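Let's study a protein:

===
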Amino acid sequence: MIDVLVAGGGPAGLATAIHAAAAGMEAVVVEPRPGPVDKACGEGLMPTGAAVLRSMGVEPDGWPLRGIRYLDGRHEAQAAFRDGRGLGVRRTTLHAALSRRAAELGVRVVPGKVTEVRQDSGGVEAAGFRARWLVAADGLHSPVRSMLGLDLPVRGQRRYGLRQHYPVAPWTDFVEVHWAPDGEAYVTPVARDLVGVAVLTSRRGGYPERLAAFPALLDRLNGPPVTQVRGAGPLRQRVRARVAGRVLLVGDAAGYVDALTGEGVALALLSAGALVRCLRAGAPQDYETAWLRLSRRHRLLTGALLSARRNPASARLIVPAAHRLPAVFEAAVRALA
């Protein structure tokens, strides 16, 4: 019987399989799409995430990141990471590197999709396999999570993300976050001749219309984009629990606040390691506590920033406040990093 069956072959699923294989467990990943799989993503890894990748034997090509900069057209604030560099890396490049490492460790990736889950005291059956554990790493709108009745209703404002790439040499080694009344634009250098621009907004509409809210940024983006628009949302996902019998949730499937602080991939990598350690210890129920601990700062800081963003009066003060209180801004960036 397989030790760990993973539904979803994105970064969270592959990281789980890599950790499991490195721990001597047999891991199989079920993924319907041929790789490498692209997805709307800010593509910036915090230093912790970059360090976890290296510890897994995964070192994708990318652009070293020194910190985060906020801009609103009048004010600017920046903070450097304290413990190492982050990494700007194309989603497809990251996926390919994780896939290579998984293959080196003997992980099988098979085409398919989990459409039904049956579990008992001895194991779980899904996608034609029987395994001791099923890990749902099937994304923001996880079908497995929904099957198990683990979704919770989401109230309030809904936010969406859109991303494209531009053939521009990076002008900085900081992730730039440009603020406008209706959203934010994240600029992440990912190669010597490529930057990704992800727009987060609560307004529906096309990418060009949303990007027009950032004229200073548009002036830097010479020429047309070189990739298609990728979108994701609604971003907020509330989850009842991360463990349901022999099924565990990881990555975006485990719950999501917002992309505002850009920590999603790093949290997925850390959570994947924690999940496998809990399984190896024979204590899968401990994963819930481990996930809550790992995500605590992210959830609190992102939630606070979102609350300020929702009120037009306080939203206008975010970048000026970061500019006038650099020590506070630096502390927040370093807490997330």
